[in-house]
């Protein structure tokens, strides 16, 4: 019993959004979870016995997606630059962040992914599609450039 995408979306969108917003407390993440749930539905080869089976399947998929998003958040905590800047009271701490923001994109990328986002070298390597040793070398070089620039600014 498979129906077209419009029918399914209209029937279950509000339900899945409510579940997602309650679990994630983020509108953007809730929209992502709902969208991913419908994509999984469209890609499944499963035949549903009736509407309650279909609803239960979609609900379970949506809850699992929300759990994955929460797990990712827990494993990769993030803080935006403005929030970081508000919490620095010592000039030297603000200075290092200001210096970081003036680096080239490639240096900034690995430093932010590693130090601020908390990704491991292996995870960064997978994201950037380079070897783990290349990431370590990029980090080494970026640290060196950050230190040189920081010191040249007289900090």
UniProtKB/TrEMBL annotation:
Residues in RNA polymerase sigma-70 region domain copies: 9-73
Pfam families registered for this protein in UniProt: Sigma70_r2, Sigma70_r4_2
GO molecular function per UniProt: DNA binding; sigma factor activity
Any GO BP annotation: DNA-templated transcription initiation
InterPro entries, A to Z: RNA_pol_sigma-70-like (IPR039425), RNA_pol_sigma-70_dom (IPR014284), RNA_pol_sigma70_r2 (IPR007627), RNA_pol_sigma70_r4_t2 (IPR013249), RNA_pol_sigma_r2 (IPR013325), RNA_pol_sigma_r3/r4-like (IPR013324), WH-like_DNA-bd_sf (IPR036388)
Domain (RNA polymerase sigma factor 70 region 4 type): residue spans on this chain: 96-146
Keywords of the record: DNA-binding, Sigma factor, Transcription, Transcription regulation
Family: Belongs to the sigma-70 factor family. ECF subfamily.
Name by which UniProt lists this protein: Sigma-70 family RNA polymerase sigma factor
Source species of the chain: Blautia obeum
